[in-house]
Each structure stands twice: as structure tokens, then as C-alpha cells.
Amino acid sequence: MEKKIEIKLCIGTLCYVMGGAELQLIQEDLPLEFRDKVKIVTSTCLNHCYKHKDKKPPFVEVNGELIAGANSIKIINHIKQKYSDVL
Amino acid sequence: MYYNNFALETRRELLIKLSKLLANNQLVEEIERIPIEMRPRKKQPIRCCVHKDRAVLKYKLMAILGYNIDDEEDELTPLSEYARQSLKREEFTDTILTVVDEACSACVKVSYTVTNLCRGCEGRPCKMNCPKGAIQMINGQAHIDSDKCVNCGLCQKACPYHAIVYMPVPCEEACPVGAITKDDEGIEHIDKDKCINCGKCITACPFGAVVEKSHLVQIHNSLKSETPNVAVVAPAVVGQFKSNPVNIFEAIKRLGFDEVIEAAEGADITVANETHELVERLEEGHQFMTSSCCPAYTALVDKHIEGLKPMVSDTHSPMIYAAEIAKKKYPNAKVTFVGPCIAKKFEGFHAKDIDYVLNFEELGAYLIANDIEIADCTDGELNDNITGEARGFAASGGVTKAIDAVTGDIFNPLVIDGIDKKSIAMLKAYSRKAPANNFIEIMSCEGGCVGGPCVLNNPKVAKRQVDNFSKGK
To answer: Given CB atoms, is A25 within the 8 Å cutoff of chain B?
Structure first.
């Protein structure tokens, strides 16, 4: 079986307070065709808040690629664009 | 109801930035920079220009520093001056909410309005069905005369083009007691004699114009002083972070508290007293009793439903009993209540054992500013003497469940989940004619405290976490 696309949600305190809490519900927003192609994991602070002071939380990694100021729509659009071949 | 929007994001960003300045001891020196940092010149302004945006942030910060916007005597007084005064301040007032007039967009008071979608049709069902003759055709489009209109909404229903819209004033719509109204300029004002501090206007306003005054500065001062500090934490906290309850309590402790007491410890006393009181009252011939732990509800009765006063339980809220425990153990301590609630700031102000109140958003901001990662706070301990029922108080029906566990069959409860115009009408009816039930639990926020105005997590997720903790999972 092919490897799933990994959505890693940062639930460090900063990301969590600035919208990460709501991102936990992203499963409900995913389009049907995504359902068995992605997996959602959470992580303690990924340190992006220290590394990228100019970018906004919450931070999310999709297969290791950083999305700042993340929300469900941003993440879904990113996956649609980047992984159209596997979906 | 809770959902993400940018006004909420602004509020949290302000809290985080202010907390960071506190943590770094730079509040007075740096506070003027916050509005400039958050609304830089190059960015597209939200309102007419960056200067207005910055002015709005200035006044929101003034509220977070603990001041009423109306208190401003001289427009030239800089934020640094308010910060300096706030750092020295000991006394508060029981005015909790303040309207940032710069931010209030003075929503138009007309409720129904005809949009450009109107085609000026021959049928004109809007005009024909208007019971007040308020609709006229001007330049080929329908026009509603606001002096005649009674907001019945018939024209909107009748229009086949959906050309008529209902324009609410969100804060007024959300306020269950009619406490927020416009002045001559259209700016909203809160009538303190009517307001029950439920906080629904804060959540409703899309301009973030209603702001809750904060005790953050004073709490920070107290934590840095020699005085012992105790936190009394509402059971809803367990649903606020994706982490173990043990970690959460330990994280709060690491902010500098000598001890963290679960308000649930007080809830056990509330349950015992309230059950006893209910049985006694029923024996005395009372027809029913209502809960008393929600401060927005008790304020509602005090200010708006005179006839229900004798029915409200005299038992104190869990916060009060837990604070008593705290003061007994540390007589000289400053006690801070941590919760999801705005009305608790009012209740806390009038309670002798509560010194400060910190809401969950402020808590989150303060944790961030102090670099405390909840996931790392693993070495805490839980109080094993607290019942699961007491820990379930955070969700609607929690009080009822806890009393039910003690009384059994004589108990016939009714749970009112959320204070709105409809439930107030119901309560008013009960003040005249007793319901079939002998106990009513009332929570101002839908879902209970997990749905409070200052929560961080989605109430559904939070309720699940609270339920699990209360069941010992």
C-alpha cells in the first residue's frame, strides 16, 4: 500500500491557542476522496514559532512541508495542488 | 457559540503580546509598539486606514490593562501611562465589560432592508403584504420606511427574488436581557444595571468592539511578589488543551502558583449542601428550587426575574467553597480563579476569598509568554479525593447528575441549557407558576461551562475530554 500523506498538527501551546484547537476537527472537513489517503497526527511544539518569527501560528506540516497560519481550507488546497496525482 | 474569526484572533494576539511584555518586564517601555507591530503601514488596513486600526488596538489594550474605555479623560494619555498605573493598581470595580467606541462600527439600526436585487416587479408582494404600509417604490425599487416598519419580516418572505435581507445588530441580538443599546451616534453602550455579564455580546460582535477587562497585570505582579498565590481552576479546564489533566494543572502551577486547587473540590461541597437544601426545602413545602452555581443566571434573577429569587438555592458555587479551602490553607494568599467565564469576574469581585479571575484565553496567553509547554509538565499530581461527578460540573447537566447520584427517586430535574430570550420567558413563567419539576439547573452558556465565552477548545471536543476525566479515564 502506498504511503499516506501526513498532516502533522502542532499542538504546542502557542499554535493551539491561535487556532490549532479548531484544527483538531480537520477530519470532518476533508473531502471524501482524501479520507483514506491522508493521516492526521498531532505533535508537541515543532519549534516553528522560534524559527519563523515572521510567520503566523498555527503551524502545520504536510509531509514535512510547512504551512503557516494554517486552517482547514489552506491545508486541503495545499494537498489538492501538490498531490493531485495520488488523489 | 464558538467559531474562529479574525476578531478573536486579534484578541488572543493582543493578550499574548501583552503577556510577553509582562514576562520580560518591558510592559511600560514597549506597550506602545504593539499596535504598530500588529498593524504595520505596508499591510492592507481592516478599517479606513492603519491609524484607525492602531487606535482600535490601543483601546483594546487599555481594556486588557483593566480600564473602562469611558474612563479616558485625556485622549493624549498614552498606553504606557495606563500600563504604569495598572502595574501599581490594587483595586478593581465590578464593571467587567467595556465597549471600544472606536471599534464599534455603529451597525445600522434598520432591521429589514431592500437590496439592489429588487427588480421592481409588477406583483410587488412586499408592498401588498406589508401590514403597516411601510413599503414605497422609489426609482423603480422598493423602499422600506423605517419609521413605519415593525420588523415583522413578511416582505422578506414574500419577495421571490430574495431581495430583502434582515440586517441584525449582532450584539443586541445576542444580548438576552436588552442591556446593550445605541446612543445618538449609533455606538453601543452597556447598561450595567441590566447586564448579567454572560459575555454573549463579546462573541457576537464581528468588530471585536466589546472587550473584557483583564486582571492579567495584577496577577502577574502578585505571582512575582513574596505573597503566596493559589489558583482555583474550573473543571472545564480539562477540555481546553490536548493534554492530560495532570499536565494542565502542573502547567498552571509552574506559572508561579504555590498550589493549584480544582474548583471541583468545592463542587463536592456544593453538591452536598445543595442536595441537603433541596430536600429541606421540599419538606418545607417549596415546589421547586433552582441551581445557583452559574453567576450569569443568578445575576439574571437578581436583575430581571424578581419572583424567582426565593427559589434560587442559597448554596455557594464551587469556586467559593474551593476559595475558602485555599484561604484556610494559605491565609495570606492571593487567590486567582481560572475559568471560561466572564460573569465569574463579577462573582469573584463580590466574593471575599477571591482576589483575581483569569480566563482561559488569558491563561493560554500567559502560558505562552512564560514558555510553558503543557506537554512537558508531566510531574504533577491529582487530588484523589474529588468525585467524578464534581469534575463533571463543567458540562450542562453536570450539577443535576451529581445531585441525582445522592438523592435518587424524589428528584425530578429540568435542565435549561443556555440563557436566551426564550428560556428567560420560560423562567419568568415558572416564577408565576411552578413547573412540574422540583429542581431546575440553569447554565447561561449552551453546553455549560465548556461552551463559555473565553474557551480555547471546541465545546464538543472539550465536553468529551471533561466526560472522560469525570469517568476516571
So the answer is: yes
Let me know how long chain A is. Answer: 87
Within-domain flag for A70: yes
Of residues B4, B9, B373, nearest to A13 (C-beta): B373
State whether B375 and A44 contact (CB < 8 Å).
Answer: yes
The answer to whether B112-166 and B218-470 have equal CATH topology is no
| Domain CATH number, residue A35 | 3.40.30.10
Total domain count for chain A?
Answer: 1
Average pLDDT over residues B329-358: 97
Q: Which residues of A touch B368 (CB under 8 A)?
A: 13-14, 17
Contact B241 A44 (CB under 8 A): no
Supply the range of the domain harboring residue A68: 5-82
Interchain contact, B461 vs A21, CB within 8 Å? yes
Min Cα distance A86 → chain B (Å) is: 31
Inter-CA distances, B77 with B40, B81, B88, B107, B226, Å: 22, 7, 17, 28, 32
ipTM of the complex: 0.89
In CATH terms, the fold of domain B112-166 is: Alpha-Beta Plaits (3.30.70)
Chain B residues lying within 8 Å of A16, measured CB to CB: 241-242, 364, 456
Cell digits of residue B221:
505582579
Question: Residue B295: helix, strand or coil by DSSP?
Answer: helix
Closest to A17 (Cβ–Cβ): which among B365, B376, B458? B365
Q: What ranges do the domains of chain B cover? A: 6-106+170-214, 112-166, 218-470
What fold is seen in the domain B6-106+170-214? Alpha-Beta Plaits (3.30.70)
Residue range B116-174, pLDDT digits in tens:
999 999 999 999 999 999 999 999 999 999 899 999 999 999 999 999 999 999 999 99
> Smallest Cβ distance to A17: which of B364, B376, B461?
B364
pLDDT bin (cut points 50, 70, 90) of residue B400 is very high
Give the gap in angstroms from C-alpha B107 to the nearest C-alpha of chain A: 28
Q: For the residues of B10-77, what is the DSSP string, one character each?
A: HHHHHHHHHHHHHHTT-HHHHTTHHHHHHS-TTSPPSSSSHHHHHHHHHHHHHHHTT--GGG---TT-
Q: How far apart are CA B199 and CA B191, in angstroms?
A: 13
